[in-house]
Design brief:
This protein has twelve helices and 17 strands. It is an alpha/beta fold. The strands form five sheets. Strands 2-10-9-8-7-3-4 form a seven-stranded mixed β-sheet, with helices on both faces. The longest helix has 38 residues.
Length: 454
C-alpha cells in the first residue's frame, strides 16, 4: 500500500541538487508564462477535518443533479462521523490481513489491540471483563442468553419488547434449539414493565436506551432479576454510556451491544462488531476469546490469549461459541475511534447529541398532528405518533430530500403510525429545522387528503 509522507525542506533541497536545479521555480522555466499559475490559491485558514470533508462533498455535489438525502434513520445503526485516521490505521497490512493470533510471539500488535479494546469496553460498561468482540449486536444478545442458560440451567428468558426486534428474533431462534421459552415483557409508557418473575427465569434482558429511545431504569430491573435468582442482561448503545449510569454500576451481570456507532460506517448494512462484557464470576462462560497481559522471560510486557472458549480450541461440549470470526478489524476501528475522542471528547459528543435530540423532539412535537409516543428521557433517538399514514408521510418527506426516520408499524403494530427519529452529530440544527418543515407539510397534506375523501 502506498502512503504519503511529506518531504522535509532538506529532502527537497537534496532532490533539487540531484537533478541540477536550484529551486522548484526553475523546474518550470520552460513553461510559457501565460499558462503558469501566477496567482494565490487563497486557501484561507486551516479547517477541521470534518469541515474539509464537507467542503469536498459540496464540490463533488456540483457533478450531480440530485441533492443528497438528509437522513434521520437510526433503529440500531447510526450515521456518525468517522475520522480519517480510522481507515489510515486499520488498512495497515499488519491489522488488515492477519488471522487468529495463535502464535503470540509474532502477534503482539494484534493481541495488544484486542487488550486495549477490551479495556475500553470494560470502562464504557462498568464491568470488569470484556471479550475480544463477537459478530454483531443481535448474536451478542443470544450469546448472553447462552451464558445464562449454562449458569443457572433454567428454562425461560424474559426479554423486553423494547429490545431491538432483530435481537429478539435471534434469541428466539437460538432458544428454540435449547428447548427454552422466550417471554416478552411489555412496554408501559415507553419503559419495560416486568411480569412476575418465577424461579424458572434464566435471564431478564432489556435494552439501554430501548428501541423506542427511552432510558430504562436498569437498577430496578437488575434488582428484580436478582431477587428471582436470574441474571440481568442489557443490550447497550455504547455512546450514551458516556453520560448514563453504566450497566456495572446498575447491578447488571452482562452488557452486550452493537458497536457500529464506534468508528464503523454505514456501508450497505455492515460490517460491524458486537461487544460482550460481564462480571468476573461469568468470565469462564463467556463466548469467544479474551486477550490478557503478561510478562515474558525477560520481564517485558507482553500479550497472550488468556481464554479461548470457541469449539475449535476446546472440547465441543464445553464450548460457549462456534462463531469463528470476532470482527477484530471492526473492533479495532472502535477502539481507535474511542481513543480519538478521548475521555472528555466522548462526553462532549454525547452532550451535543443530547442537546440536538431535545431540540428535535421539541420542534417536531410542536407541530399539528405530531405527538410524543412516550415522555421518558431520551438521548439520541425518540418515537413519535403521527395523525397521518406514516408511510405516506415518509414518502412525501423523501421527495423533499429528507428521510424522516424509521416507520415503527412493521415491528410494533400497536404503533401503526409511529415514527422513530435518530439524531447524530452529523445532523445540524438547520437539518432538524428542514426535517420539521418537511414533516409538517407532509402530515398536513395527508390529513387534508383524508378529509377530502371523507
Amino acid at each position: 500500500m502506498t502512503r504519503y509522507t511529506s518531504v522535509t525542506d532538506a529532502d527537497r533541497s537534496e532532490m533539487l541538487a540531484t537533478i541540477g536545479v536550484s529551486s522548484i521555480r526553475e523546474l518550470f522555466a520552460d513553461i510559457p508564462p501565460g499558462v503558469r499559475l501566477n496567482r494565490s490559491l487563497s486557501l484561507g485558514p486551516g479547517f477541521a477535518e470534518q469541515q474539509v470533508f464537507e467542503e469536498f462533498r459540496a464540490l463533488a455535489a456540483r457533478n450531480t443533479s440530485a441533492e443528497d438525502e438528509v437522513s434521520f434513520l437510526g433503529a440500531g445503526m447510526y450515521d456518525h462521523y468517522v475520522p480519517a485516521l480510522v481507515d489510515s490505521i486499520i488498512q495497515r497490512s499488519e491489522f488488515l490481513t492477519p488471522y487468529t493470533p495463535y502464535q503470540p510471539e509474532i502477534s503482539q500488535g494484534g493481541l495488544q489491540a484486542m487488550f486495549e479494546y477490551q479495556t475500553a469496553i470494560s470502562e464504557l460498561t462498568g464491568l470488569p471483563i470484556s471479550n475480544a468482540s463477537v459478530y454483531e449486536g443481535p448474536s451478542a444478545v443470544a450469546a448472553a442468553g447462552y451464558v445464562a442458560k449454562h449458569t443457572n440451567r433454567r428454562e425461560r428468558f424474559v426479554i423486553s419488547r423494547g429490545v431491538h426486534p432483530h435481537s429478539r428474533e435471534c434469541l428466539r431462534t437460538m432458544a428454540r434449539a435449547w428447548d427454552m421459552e422466550v417471554v416478552e415483557a411489555p412496554l408501559n409508557q415507553g419503559a419495560t414493565e416486568l411480569p412476575e418473575l418465577t424461579e424458572d427465569v434464566s435471564a431478564v434482558i432489556v435494552q439501554q436506551p430501548n428501541f423506542l429511545g427511552a432510558v430504562e431504569d436498569l437498577e430496578a430491573i437488575a434488582q428484580a432479576a436478582h431477587t428471582a435468582g436470574a441474571l440481568a442482561v442489557t443490550a447497550c448503545d455504547p455512546l450514551p454510556l458516556a453520560l448514563l449510569k453504566t450497566p456495572g454500576e446498575s447491578g447488571i451481570d452482562i452488557a452486550v451491544g452493537e458497536g457500529q456507532s464506534l468508528g464503523n460506517r454505514l456501508d450497505f448494512g455492515g460490517p460491524s462488531f458486537g461487544f460482550f462484557a460481564a462480571t468476573e464470576s461469568l468470565q469462564r462462560r463467556m463466548p469467544g476469546r479474551i486477550a490478557g497481559e503478561t510478562k515474558d522471560v525477560d520481564g517485558k510486557r507482553g500479550f497472550v490469549l488468556t481464554l479461548q472458549t470457541r469449539e475449535q480450541h476446546i472440547r465441543r461440549e464445553k464450548a460457549t461459541s462456534n462463531i469463528c470470526t470476532a470482527q477484530a478489524l471492526n473492533a479495532l476501528a472502535g477502539v481507535i475511534y474511542l481513543s480519538w475522542l478521548g475521555r472528555r471528547g466522548i462526553v462532549e459528543l454525547v452532550e451535543l447529541i443530547l442537546q440536538r435530540t431535545a431540540y428535535a423532539r421539541e420542534r417536531l412535537t410542536a407541530l399539528d398532528g405530531v405527538f410524543v409516543l412516550h415522555d421518558r428521557p431520551v438521548v439520541r433517538e425518540f418515537a413519535l405518533e403521527l395523525d397521518a399514514p406514516v408511510q405516506r408521510v415518509v414518502a412525501r418527506c423523501r421527495e423533499q430530500g429528507v428521510n424522516p426516520g424509521y416507520a415503527l408499524g412493521r415491528d410494533y403494530p400497536e404503533h401503526e403510525n409511529g415514527l422513530l427519529v435518530a439524531i447524530t452529530e452529523q445532523r445540524t440544527r438547520a437539518d432538524i429545522d428542514r426535517l420539521a418543515d418537511a414533516v409538517a407539510g407532509a402530515v398536513a397534506a395527508e390529513r387534508q387528503a383524508v378529509g377530502a375523501k371523507a
